[in-house]
Amino acid sequence: MSNREPAPRTTPARTTSSAGAAAVLAAERIVKTYRRGWRRDSVRVLTDANLRLAAGEIVGLVGENGSGKSTLMKILVGSLEKDSGRVVRHGSLGYCPQNPILYERLTCDEHFELFARAYGLELAVADRSQQDLYDELGFDQYRQSRVEELSGGTRAKLNLGLALLHDPDLLLLDEPYAGFDWDTYLRFWELTADRRDRGRTVLIISHFVADEERFDRIVHLKNGKTEG
After folding, report:
1. Per-residue pLDDT averaged across 162-187, rounded?
2. pTM, two decimal places
3. Under a CB-based contact definition with an 8 Å cutoff, are residues 64 and 220 in contact?
4. How far is the C-alpha of 153 from the C-alpha of 175, rounded, in Å?
5. 175-201 burial, b if ≥16 CB within 10 A, otherwise e?
6. Based on C-alpha coordinates, what's the Rg of the chain?
């Protein structure tokens, strides 16, 4: 993707500040330490991570590999316990992990049905959202294909689609477009900008940002601390 000129935005970036707006997510003074090896040596990954997300903004969380981005994301989602600090979320949550968590022998349709039930969606709402996502991400032809038959890029589309199915207030994405081709990459940003314009909040984790103008804010994670 980096060898192509980015396409013009369909929705201009806005100057937003989360300082005066009610927070959809607030994480304060997050600390996380791992113990590794047979000697159980302590490795402090997060020392003072802070993050505040307001409604209707796209925020990038950027850091080098091993900086603790995915650790912080898992803490924000609630799948990993922090050592100390505070996390408060408001509204519904959608989470797209870096490595797709899918069932190899289920089809795409079966995945959407399973997640729709887990989200408690009405059948008509789930069907409409599912079809919209097939169209937006461009993989309708694979709806009856099992995951074991899908390419890495199509798995990534399904992974993202499952996080978006219930149109969450807060969407947390860990390296969401790593396996996308150029066309899907552009579709992703159209889809993301549309949700932002409807008041949804999106946090995107990446080890680098190619199109900084597509974000409202960039937060850097370095030496266990957030900046920006």
Report:
1. 93
2. 0.85
3. no
4. 13
5. bbbebbeeebbbbbbebbbebbeeebb
6. 18
Q: What is the pLDDT of residue 5?
A: 40
Which of 158, 156, 82, 50 lies closest to 113, judged by CA?
158
Q: How far is CA 211 from CA 8, 59, 194, in A?
A: 10, 12, 17
Residue 26 CB burial class (10 angstroms; 0-12, 13-18, ≥19)? middle
- Res 21: pLDDT: 63
What's the CA gap between 162 and 165, in Å, rounded?
Answer: 5
Q: Which residue has the tokens 């601390």?
A: 225
In one-letter notation, the amino acid at residue 128 is: R
Q: What is the DSSP letter of 151?
A: -
| Whether residue 11 has pLDDT greater than 80 | no
Per-residue pLDDT tens over the stretch 141-164: 999 999 999 999 999 999 999 999
pLDDT of residue 4: 40
Pick left, alpha or beta for residue 91 (phi over 0 → left; psi -120 to 50 → alpha; otherwise beta): left
With a pLDDT cut of 90, the percent of the chain lying above it is: 73
Q: What angle do CA 203, 224, 27 make, to 5 degrees?
A: 45
**Cβ atoms < 10 Å from Cβ of 6:** 15
| CA 138 to the chain's CA centroid | 19
Backbone torsions φ then ψ of 49, nearest 5 degrees:
-95, 130
Q: Phi-psi category of 210—alpha, beta or left, where left has phi over 0 and alpha has psi -120 to 50? A: alpha
